Write a sequence for this structure.
């Protein structure tokens, strides 16, 4: 194709002359499907290497909801991990129990892991907490994402331990990470970012975010080019979340001022560096009710249990 | 089918009130960058990037 005429109004890949599928910034360039896919995987590989996220012998629990980010994560790791020495993925899906939403993504997760030949386990809120999310949330929908987040974190940790994982990989992308920085600032809780980032303790299975420098839009494009894109329903509880508002605001800013999201991440990293020497990490204690490691008297989950009555 | 005139995908999206970084566009069945030029004869598909995942 590189020597042939392109349809009117089409750009060529700067590397090979094939029809472009993406226009990237910084540096500005057009890439074809093959070179975009290669660039995408290379950036994830670099993110993992720069962050020292993986070590030989690691068993990586991939938190696979079946949605787009975790699907891309499983896909890209299945391409990258064979090059690492003795590193293996195991996919873990948390079934929160959200009617009209989770069933479809569960099926998508099962299809993907069968296609990739990845070991896959599903753990449900009903099994771990005695109720599904819809029942837990009845009348508390405004707090849906906070409650679900705490329970999901716990469920993932339990499942990762159960299936022998040494790391937990999540599909958080650049947009998610930038939103979190802004949300913590808006809530007056910027220090939380540093607490979360600094959680290196033998009591916890380390969490890694290989897509944290990858924009959401590029994840969707990657999936389409890998023939793994699915139109799936959105979680019915997202409309209650502050994140939904921040997401719209930030994507508008990113369009008008390219680089905004990356700047937020860079700010977070600078704050982390400034605090690295000064911060005295809170001693890790054991929750007085369940015995899980935590920083206060009660862990987040037990505090939630109390607040839910 | 959108009567786009001869404009870029980005201009079409902005005119429709859509933020170009929240969607991916295909022209006549092929994924295209947002500076691809489209005209009235082209079939444009706008794929919204879903939340979550």
């Amino acid at each position: 194709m590189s020597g042939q005429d392109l349809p009117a109004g089409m750009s060529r890949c700067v590397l090979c002359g094939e029809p472009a599928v993406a226009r990237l910034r910084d540096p500005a360039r057009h890439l074809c499907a093959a070179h975009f896919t290669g660039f995408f995987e290379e950036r994830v590989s670099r993110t993992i290497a720069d962050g020292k996220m993986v070590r030989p012998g690691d068993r990586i629990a991939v938190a696979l909801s079946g949605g787009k980010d975790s699907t891309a994560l499983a896909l890209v790791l299945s391409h990258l991990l064979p090059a690492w020495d003795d590193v293996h993925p195991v996919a873990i899906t948390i079934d929160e129990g959200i009617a009209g939403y989770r069933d479809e993504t569960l099926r998508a997760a099962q299809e993907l892991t069968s296609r990739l030949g990845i070991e896959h386990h599903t753990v449900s809120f009903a099994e771990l907490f005695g109720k599904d999310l819809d029942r837990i949330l009845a009348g508390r929908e405004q707090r849906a994402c906070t409650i679900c987040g705490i329970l999901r974190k716990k469920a993932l940790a339990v499942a990762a331990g159960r299936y022998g994982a040494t790391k937990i990989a999540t599909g958080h992308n650049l947009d998610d990470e930038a939103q979190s920085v802004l949300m913590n600032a808006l809530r007056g809780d910027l220090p939380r970012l540093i607490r979360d980032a600094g959680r290196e303790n033998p009591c916890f299975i380390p969490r890694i975010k290989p897509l944290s420098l990858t924009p959401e839009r590029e994840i969707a494009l990657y999936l389409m080019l890998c023939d793994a894109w699915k139109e799936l329903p959105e979680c019915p509880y997202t409309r209650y979340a502050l994140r939904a508002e921040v997401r719209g605001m930030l994507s508008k800013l990113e369009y008008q001022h390219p680089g905004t999201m990356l700047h937020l991440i860079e700010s977070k990293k600078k704050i982390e560096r400034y605090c690295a020497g000064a911060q005295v990490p809170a001693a890790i204690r054991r929750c007085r009710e369940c015995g899980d490691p935590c920083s206060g008297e009660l862990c987040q989950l037990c505090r939630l249990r109390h607040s839910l009555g | 089918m959108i009567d786009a005139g001869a404009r870029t995908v980005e201009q079409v999206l902005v005119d429709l009130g859509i933020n170009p970084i929240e969607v991916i566009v295909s022209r006549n069945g092929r994924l295209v960058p947002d500076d691809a030029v489209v005209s009235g004869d082209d079939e444009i598909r706008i794929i919204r990037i879903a939340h979550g995942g």
